[in-house]
């Protein structure tokens, strides 16, 4: 939408809400629908081409409003996670509509998804150990649990271990900043030999510092063999896997127990919206299942398709921390339909192309260097020279307020990160940003040259 259409549609939506409030007394308090009613009312996959706003809004009235108190929230979420799972070509084990035991849920952030996975893995491991050693206490087992993640992983993984009360080890990476099988395998063997119980590994596809990719096709078999829960955090980069040319980076996902991406980072969905899939939903719901009287209803434990045997299957309050849940799947439904799969793929490809343009500009200037492979929309670069020089450049960039860069450290060096992620970003913005950076760097280098000249 352009600004004019956005204003018009916004006013229409206010009228929609006002009409609902004005006529609310004429609506049923309790919905007259059966579990699974929604799936048959909409297609089983996201459209390839964009659909009209009018069609989407009509479907809100036709599909959503009959279940608005509020099974529609859980049911649309379940179907939208299947839509997105199919767009990503996830194994059927992760989809709700198949004969597997998995499914998807929307968490608030990737940090929540990682925490949910770690806590679920902790409970599963404790129960497994107690089956073979009933006299062993939960506290004793937890004190011996150990988790793993890349030294390049987001800090939220370490935070999850703190909340979960378990030890975590940072796994060193190779020259491409990726975790490899032999390194993890060695660490697991060492820890088992000293009495620890390896139970959780968080792999990263698209690390925060430089968008590196752990080798999950190597790491997955090790985790499976050692009964280690493998969670894949692909918060940013995972969105790009809807493009066939990037999908090979997800090869090995079949070994994972859980997987998450953030559609609010690279799929044009507003914050917050973190999509999480689990291979066995019971592993998740067992960890967080509560059953007070005030949460019971006549469809307690009901589900549909493969989930008929699993209590609380579509009741998403048992899939995470919050008891009250926002209707975040509406955002996915609107975006998927108004852009279509091809529109979303085009958006991602454009941003990757713009990042490549910036990379080429950096490589064409002898004062700068590229610090990591550019795979998607993130470019890691720096001025050739000291960390202090690069910190000074970043300080100047921030002070002028024209563009905003966030730094990182790679192999101990201070590095600048340029990310293409705005919906309206065009080539001219990349060119203007580079012009601004080079002008500031030239001033900085000239001042440094003048200062050294005076000292000599």
Automatic annotation (TrEMBL):
The record's listing under Gene3D superfamilies reads: Aspartate Aminotransferase, domain 1, Type I PLP-dependent aspartate aminotransferase-like (Major domain)
Tagged with keyword Thylakoid:
no
Q: Which residues carry this modification: N6-(pyridoxal phosphate)lysine?
A: 265
UniProt keyword Nucleotidyltransferase present: no
Q: Which cofactor does it need?
A: pyridoxal 5'-phosphate
Q: In which pathway does it act?
A: Catecholamine biosynthesis; dopamine biosynthesis; dopamine from L-tyrosine: step 2/2
Might you give the EC number(s) for this enzyme?
4.1.1.28
**Which keywords describe this protein according to UniProt?**
Catecholamine biosynthesis, Decarboxylase, Lyase, Pyridoxal phosphate
Q: Which GO terms describe its cellular component?
A: cytoplasm
EC supergroup of this enzyme? lyase
Per the record, the domain of life is Eukaryota
Assembly behavior: Homodimer.
Q: Which family does it belong to?
A: Belongs to the group II decarboxylase family.
Q: Can you say what this protein is called? A: Aromatic-L-amino-acid decarboxylase
- Source species of the chain: Gadus morhua
């Amino acid at each position: 939408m352009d600004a004019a259409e956005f204003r018009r549609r916004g006013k229409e939506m206010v009228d929609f809400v006002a009409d609902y409030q004005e006529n609310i007394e004429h609506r049923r308090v309790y919905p007259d629908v059966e579990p699974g009613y929604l799936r048959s009312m909409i297609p089983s996959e996201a459209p390839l081409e964009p659909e009209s706003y009018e069609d989407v809004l009509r479907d809100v009235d036709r599909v959503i409003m009959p279940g608005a108190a509020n099974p529609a929230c859980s049911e649309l979420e379940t179907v939208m996670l299947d839509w997105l799972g199919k767009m990503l070509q996830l194994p059927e084990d992760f989809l709700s509509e198949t004969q597997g035991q998995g499914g998807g849920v929307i968490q608030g952030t990737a940090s929540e998804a990682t925490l949910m996975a770690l806590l679920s893995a902790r409970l599963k491991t404790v129960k497994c150990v107690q089956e073979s050693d009933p006299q062993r206490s939960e506290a004793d087992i937890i004190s011996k649990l150990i988790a793993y993640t890349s030294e390049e992983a987001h800090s939220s993984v370490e935070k999850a271990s703190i909340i979960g009360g378990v030890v975590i080890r940072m796994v060193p990476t190779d020259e491409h900043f990726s975790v490899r099988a032999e390194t993890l395998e060695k660490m697991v063997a060492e820890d088992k030999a000293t009495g620890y119980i390896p139970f959780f590994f968080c792999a990263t596809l698209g690390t925060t510092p430089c968008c590196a990719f752990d080798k999950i096709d190597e790491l997955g078999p090790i985790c499976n063999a050692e009964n280690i829960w493998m969670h894949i955090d692909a918060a940013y980069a995972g969105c790009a896997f809807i493009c066939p040319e990037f999908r090979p980076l997800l090869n090995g996902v079949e070994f994972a127990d859980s997987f998450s991406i953030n559609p609010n980072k690279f799929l044009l969905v507003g914050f917050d919206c973190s999509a999480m899939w689990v291979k066995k939903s019971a592993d998740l719901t067992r960890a967080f299942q509560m059953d007070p009287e005030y949460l019971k209803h006549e469809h307690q434990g009901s589900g549909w398709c493969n989930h008929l045997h699993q209590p609380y299957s579509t009741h998403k309050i048992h899939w995470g921390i919050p008891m009250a849940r926002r209707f975040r799947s509406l955002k996915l439904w609107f975006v998927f339909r108004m852009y279509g799969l091809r529109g979303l793929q085009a958006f991602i490809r454009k941003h990757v192309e713009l990042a490549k343009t910036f990379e080429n500009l950096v490589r064409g200037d002898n004062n700068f260097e590229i610090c990591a492979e550019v795979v998607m929309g993130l470019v890691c670069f720096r001025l050739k020279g000291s960390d202090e020089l690069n910190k000074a450049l970043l300080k100047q960039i921030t002070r002028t307020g024209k563009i905003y860069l966030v730094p990182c450290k790679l192999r101990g060096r201070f590095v600048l990160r340029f990310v293409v992620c705005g919906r309206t970003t065009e080539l001219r913005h990349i060119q203007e940003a580079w012009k601004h950076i080079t002008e500031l760097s030239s001033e900085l280098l000239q001042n440094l040259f003048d200062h050294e000249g005076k000292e000599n």
